[in-house]
């Protein structure tokens, strides 16, 4: 049956329904022709209609089909030369997803026809002419309308933010309080039971592992595994359909929006982990699913001396060519779409160093950074860089410009080493827990530029960090050769689960040490979902392919898990209630009544200030940090000065108990609030100590004391 065909428009890219029909627009500067193919459903083996897109404007092919409506499945076939040696991989036998797909239906049915070349000894040199439509997912036209009435972003200031890293599926998959049909979905994440859990915990934002439509790797499926984390993106606009309780298309998109709206109503922001550094199409031997077949030379960073091969700064086979204006535009269009249409509140950029690379090296003035900074929408959301990749010069902690925060890898590494008891960590430990001024103060940033974390999805969970000296990734099917090979050597006793009460008590204490340190450090804490109760991955430190109980959160929690959860709640409440733990400015001395007053002080176990010899010693493993609540030089929205209590944090990373003399003159009294050597971590009955008394610190413990009597000037005045 003939279909009406009108010329259409080159903008916007993708499939746009205007109420009467759909405009299709796709960029390709190297194609000789493009067909739009319409399908009756996700499983349709062949297209029902094929239309040649004869109009091309500014390298964009476009057509308007007035009879098409939302729900229509479609894909592209792109014509041009197949010449991998020249970087050209056009093959019209292969159905391609729309790079601007707003929804995708179906999963890849893997077979050799999913590759643009014939398998054989000649590698990728010979074109494969078989049609792959039967095994290809399809793009879907959607209607973007949604009732956002009443929705308002919490816009939590960064210094007040507490981020919770979670996986959409893993978070609610096992939660009995979530209806079974919603478990492991966007609906499950936005379910009242899930929202209340996050509210009660006290976090202000969820950072979701990738929700962009991703591909299940063929080699994993052949081993019965899944790409659980989802760092294998194939569409930067479509929410991953497998995370929806609803059917793919309009309902899937609306389910995601409902999740966001429900979380916003509870004051919780939504931050997306986004993967703009590479795609699921892999290297020169990878499949052709979208970008390769539309315009390989434009979308990917090819080797300049041999464009058959790809530059790979990511370890995933390819790198997106952010230097190309159309690729950069796609990334920015994607970001704006998720903010304006999906109402998300920010982004964490995976391997962000790749996005700021120039033709020869890292470029701090890259077009990517420039366009984000000048954009009136994107410059106002939370921007978090994972500031590294695997390329030369790719470790950029402390080097992203203003507006950007960073996953502070140096915080993670230093706090781990110090609390483990390593030598020569005291100086850097002090920098990390006080806001990393050495990294961020000189370039116009504030302490909240540092996203502090101990664990993340990538590596051991907190429980396993203190329970295993070796990784146990056998379930991944790579003979335990994958994952970080570094040895943690936590000296917490037996490897893995044990019935020894002393070992378990020590492990529990170390978990409390890490949580207290993380949540009371200056900067923005990020908590790995499940660490609040001690989730285990059974020693797997690379659970990217474990879509099962290894990765999912458990909700049937024993007494120890409940105690740790309560401790985490309590420490978060301390941070929330006391601005001294989340200062928006770096520490600096002040004058009060003509006297120089310190807003932070560092003490040795003798109760006197640390001296240069102690800072430079490789053996100091016990230190006190005083945080002045009276000298913060911070004002509220009404320009009134903010004051708080004064606290003293004591850290003993030694494997031996330490006696710590409390600082101050005799009129000063300290009240013990937190002692991680206690089973609950909190001191149920306030214990007061006079300055000059020696408080006995358990081995490997953290204590928090509050100034309850006496003048702060008795301690902080020089």
* CATH fold-level label of the largest domain: TIM Barrel
Structural class, by secondary structure, is alpha/beta
CATH class of the largest domain: Alpha Beta
Average pLDDT across residues?
95
> Count of DSSP E strands?
29
Instruction: Calculate the terminal CA-CA distance, rounded to whole Å.
Output: 89 Å
Strand order of the largest sheet: 12-13-14-15-16-17-18-19
Proportion of residues in helical segments: 10-25%
- Number of helices, where a helix is a run of at least 4 consecutive DSSP H or I residues: 16
Fraction in beta strands: 15-25%
Largest sheet: 8 strands, parallel, barrel
- Quickly give the CATH architecture of the largest domain: Alpha-Beta Barrel
CA radius of gyration? 28 Å
Q: Which outline best applies?
A: elongated
Overall structural domain count: 2
Chain oligomer state: single chain
Point out poorly predicted stretches.
none
**CATH H-level superfamily title of the largest domain:** Glycosidases
Q: Can you describe this structure?
A:
The mean pLDDT is 95. A hairpin with a 4-residue loop joins strand 8 and strand 9 (88-89). The chain is of the alpha/beta class. The chain contains 16 helices and 29 strands. The strands form seven sheets. Strands 12-13-14-15-16-17-18-19 form an eight-stranded parallel β-barrel. Strands 22-23-24-29-26-27 form a six-stranded antiparallel sheet. A five-stranded antiparallel sheet has the order 4-3-7-11-10, with no helix packed on it. It folds into two domains: 159-277 and 313-579, Alpha-Beta Barrel (TIM Barrel); 587-716, Immunoglobulin-like (Sandwich).
